[in-house]
Write a structure and sequence with these properties.
Elements: H1 2-18, H2 22-70, E1 74-78, E2 86-88, H3 90-97, E3 118-122, E4 125-127, H4 133-140, E5 144-153, E6 158-169, E7 175-184, H5 186-208, E8 212-221, E9 224-233, H6 235-241, H7 251-254, H8 258-261, H9 263-275, E10 279-285, E11 290-297, E12 303-310, H10 312-362, H11 372-377
Length: 378
């Protein structure tokens, strides 16, 4: 009996010990609720942040799309690692490839999927599809530096491009495609070729002119012109002046004392540089002991071009002609004085003969002089 009572007492004690304390349970529930509330708030913040990030990503995507649409360079995106599908921005489609928007222009596309036929050349050598920038970037996972490429289309249309490419990676770091970009330099290259041709023609004209040409830069000390430097001269310059190795040197170094002996030359060149108005003149350059006919104009600030010819022989010939003219005029004046004296003497003789004839007629004698020519002349 006592053992039974003892067992029941123990069982009651165990039940009392296992029964939770109401106060403790309430505290635990309150703590759990607070923790749950905190977690919910954090989740809500994360969701808000994720939404903001998505909005920003969508905004950046739209901005990037706008940039692609207005960019004046061709941009192509390869949408797969094999570059089977490549599409371009508006400039690429409309101005380079001449295809509808969204057209697959990949040279690696399957035969039935190729929308445009073209060939790509580097330095005159045709490239196959695997050698193109986007394909190389996707295959190697490395950026392809920009280089000059020539795209040839049907109808003899050619686009000169300066193109490069870079790979695109997915979240795992695997290549998922590539981006290629290129500037259409066709017009630039044509302009450069035309410029080179023009430069060649003008250089040939410059070097083969029979007139001397000097391209010079005026040197100022403050506002005062003090010298000029030869920047370029043609062959005729050396032939006509006898001056050599003048490029890069001041005229005062080439012809010492010229500013003292021929100050007017510097004044004229400086006036043309300042006013921009061309002038032509003839001058005896004492320092060179030669006469020059010069036309000068200013192609740029502080610069002038002088085109000249040596006219020393012509001036000497003109001087000789002038001396001859003076001699002839003096001789003519002397002849006129002689003629006037001779004519006066002849008229006096006629007058005397008239008087003799009149005296003879008064004396009843025949006139000794025939003066019919004098009456006819009068």
């Amino acid at each position: 009996m006592a053992g039974l009572l003892t067992k029941r007492w123990r069982d009651g004690a165990d039940e009392s010990a296992a029964r939770p304390d109401p106060q403790t349970t309430t505290q635990k529930r309150r703590a759990a609720n607070e923790e749950l509330t905190t977690i919910n708030e954090r989740l809500r913040e994360k969701v808000d942040q994720l939404g903001t990030a998505c909005d920003e990503a969508e905004l950046r995507t739209s901005e990037l799309q706008a940039v692609l649409e207005v960019a004046q360079v061709a941009i192509w995106i390869a949408h797969d690692p094999q570059c089977r599908r490549i599409t371009g921005n508006r400039f690429a489609d409309e101005f380079v490839m001449h295809v509808p928007r969204g057209t697959n222009i990949s040279a690696s596309a399957k035969t039935g999927d190729k929308a445009v036929a073209y060939k790509v050349f580097r330095n005159g050598v045709e490239l196959n599809a695997s050698e193109l920038p986007a394909q190389v970037a996707a295959a190697t996972g490395k950026t392809v530096p920009a280089e000059a490429l020539e795209l040839r289309f049907s109808g003899n249309r050619v686009a000169q491009m300066f193109m490069g490419a870079t790979p695109l990676f997915d979240a795992r770091g695997q290549v998922r495609g590539a981006v290629a970009a290129g500037a259409d330099v066709t017009k630039l290259l044509l302009a450069e070729e035309a410029l080179r041709g023009s430069e060649t023609r003008y250089r040939s004209l410059f070097e083969n002119m029979i007139n001397g040409v000097a391209y010079c830069r005026m040197v100022f000390d403050g506002e005062q012109p003090v010298d000029f430097v030869y920047l370029a001269v043609n062959r005729a310059f050396e032939t006509l002046t006898g001056l050599k190795d003048v490029v890069g040197k001041r005229v005062s170094e080439i012809i010492p004392g010229i500013h003292q002996s021929d100050p007017e030359l510097l004044k004229i060149y400086a006036r043309v540089v300042r006013t921009g108005k061309p002038e032509s003149f003839e001058m005896n350059v004492e320092a060179l002991r030669q006469w020059f006919a010069v036309s000068v104009y200013s192609p740029a600030p502080e610069h002038f071009v002088a085109v000249f010819d040596v006219i020393t022989d012509r001036k000497q010939h003109e001087a000789a002609l002038q001396r001859k003219f003076e001699e002839l005029r003096a001789a003519n004046d002397e002849l006129e004085r002689f003629n006037r004296a001779a004519v006066g003497r002849e008229l006096r003789m006629i007058e005397l003969k008239k008087q003799v004839n009149e005296l003879c007629a008064g004396a009843g004698r025949p006139a000794p002089y025939n003066l019919d020519f004098a009456r006819a002349a009068s």
